[in-house]
Design brief:
Blueprint: H1 11-25, H2 37-44, H3 48-60, E1 64-67, E2 73-76, H4 81-98, H5 103-124, H6 127-140, H7 147-163, H8 168-189, H9 195-210, H10 214-243
Antiparallel strand pairs: 1-2
Helix pairs in contact: 1-3, 2-3, 4-8, 5-7, 5-8, 5-10, 6-7, 6-9, 7-8, 9-10
């Protein structure tokens, strides 16, 4: 593990990156104890506070964990897909907001990714996935449900569809699409969309999944994509006329 003292990059960040690279390459294995702060300080030729800051960076990313006591220290952590979801969602949200991605582009990507899950979900979804989707559909029909709660239910419904594919890598990759893109799209369309229409499409999707009809799931998702895009165009056109 090496760093470049002449680099303008913060030394603690360089150390954190060096240790991260060692973990990714397998030079440091899961549950392996890292060298002590004193040993890392000597190795990198930096102060212990600098090493400590690097370890804090790694702990914040769930790459290491610390234990106290005689057998304690810093250890390589085993990251679960569930632990990594929040970072994926945050990164996706930032990318969308900072790069001014158009609604059509976000909608196209989000539904293309979800439709790719449809065949697997139709084959592998469990009773629990279906129960989650049915519960969210029921929730969406309740009078007095706020727009925020409806949007949250919408996300939970689609997340269950993705998780129904039974592939944790896909679930992780689509976490950003469902939990970052979907809320952003909901923010634009929630004032105009017909809840009954959404519930109807969600019911058709759940029915097709339960019947194992992948082509039907795909067709209903395509309809939902087209409906969402049309709503967004109508909303943005109305806003433009109001300003003009």
């Amino acid at each position: 593990m090496k760093i470049d003292p002449k680099s303008r990059t913060d030394l603690s960040a360089q150390i954190a990156q060096a240790i991260r690279d060692a973990i990714i390459s397998g030079d440091l294995n899961v549950d392996e104890r890292l060298p002590s702060e004193a040993e890392l300080s000597d190795h990198f030729q930096v102060s212990r506070p600098t090493v400590r800051e690097a370890l804090k960076r790694l702990a914040a990313q769930s790459l290491i964990r610390t234990q106290r006591g005689a057998s304690g220290g810093a250890f390589v952590n085993r990251i679960s897909f569930e632990d990594a979801y929040p970072q994926q969602v945050t990164t996706s949200t930032l990318l969308l907001s900072m790069n001014a991605v158009s609604f059509d582009t976000a909608c196209e990507a989000r539904y293309a990714l979800e439709r790719a899950c449809a065949p697997l979900s139709a084959e592998r979804r469990t009773a629990d996935h279906l129960a989650t989707m049915r519960a969210e559909i029921f929730r969406q029909t309740q009078p007095g449900l706020t727009d925020e709660a409806f949007c949250a239910s919408d996300v939970s419904f689609h997340r269950a569809l993705v998780d129904g594919a039974g592939n944790p890598v896909l679930s992780y990759q689509l976490a950003g699409a469902v939990e970052a893109m979907q809320p952003l799209m909901n923010m634009i369309t929630f004032t105009a969309r017909d809840r009954e229409r959404i519930v109807e499409l969600h019911t058709q999707i759940a029915d097709a999944l339960e019947a194992g009809q992948a082509a039907e799931v795909d067709a209903h998702l395509a309809t939902l994509c087209a409906y969402t895009t049309t709503l967004a165009h109508d909303v943005m056109e109305a806003r433009a006329k109001a300003k003009g």
